[in-house]
Design a protein that fits this description.
By secondary structure, the protein is mainly alpha-helical. The protein has helices spanning 9-16, 25-41, 47-54, 58-64, 68-77.
């Protein structure tokens, strides 16, 4: 039974997927940094560290990707 508070993966993917042409360079930098750090540290990679690696503030990171789950979903959507 699905918990009503659990987000539907398909709907999260469809609402957050932009083409590469639609993404800003900052968004691309964030995704590259997140992918690198998720590979190294798993989902526990701190958002502060992701932002630092991407050379943006955490506020900017969360402007484009409200949660780490959104980051992971976007990375996986590109596969």
């Amino acid at each position: 039974m699905k918990n009503k508070n659990t987000p539907d993966l398909q709907s999260m993917l469809s609402e957050s997927v932009l083409t590469d042409a639609e993404m800003t360079e900052k968004q691309k930098d964030i995704l590259r940094a997140a992918e690198k750090l998720f590979i190294e540290f798993g989902f526990e990679a701190p958002t502060a560290q992701i932002a630092k690696e991407a050379k943006v503030t955490e506020k900017t990171l969360f402007k484009y990707f409200p949660t780490k789950t959104h980051l992971v979903n976007r990375i996986l959507a590109d596969r």
